[in-house]
Amino acid sequence: MSRYEQAWCDDLVAGVEPLEVAMQVLYVVTDTEEGKVAFVITFGDDSVTATAGKLPRGQKATVTVTAKEAVLLELWAGDRSRDAAFMRGDLKIEGQYERWLDDLVPLFSSGEWASQWKAAAA
């Protein structure tokens, strides 16, 4: 399975806990073998889904995260600090930055999410 395809996205969110609030997170990953790729994680109605590709034209994500693939893989594996990557300019966060900090960073670094991100980096 190739990273960032729909099967990979499905595996990423399999069995993980959703947020209790609606939110969409668009990941834009640069410098991959395929060039620039994207995937969207959608939280809503006590569910979480991930979809390969960008949002449809006219839709905007709550938070957009942009980084080179190498940076994201280090973050997902737990080998790099999100704060340090952001402060160095290696991780760009657009949209509702406070929701990223308050809701997503704690969620993504705990329990099943942390395991899924590490598997995604492998």
Helix content: 25-40%
Which consecutive residue ranges, at least 5 long each, have pLDDT under 50?
Answer: none
Pattern of helices and strands: HEEEEHHEHH
In the CATH scheme, what's the topology name? Nonspecific Lipid-transfer Protein, Chain A
The tally of strands reads: 5
Order of strands, main sheet, comes to 3-2-1-4-5
Q: How far do the termini sit from each other?
A: 12 Å
By DSSP (H or I, 4+ residues per run), the number of helices equals 5
The domain tally reads 1
Strand percentage lies at 25-35%
The CATH homologous superfamily corresponds to SCP2 sterol-binding domain
**How would you classify the quaternary structure?**
single chain
Write a structural description:
By secondary structure, this protein is α+β, with helices and mostly antiparallel strands. It has one domain: Nonspecific Lipid-transfer Protein, Chain A. 38% of the residues lie in helices and 30% in strands. The protein has 5 helices and 5 strands. It has a 5-stranded mixed sheet. Strand 2 and strand 3 form a beta hairpin. The longest helix is centred in the last third of the chain and has 12 residues, at 97-108. It starts with 5 loop residues before the first helix and ends with a helix.
Quick structural summary:
With 122 residues, this protein is α+β, with helices and mostly antiparallel strands. It has five helices and five strands; from the N terminus they run αββββααβαα. The protein is globular and about 35 Å long.
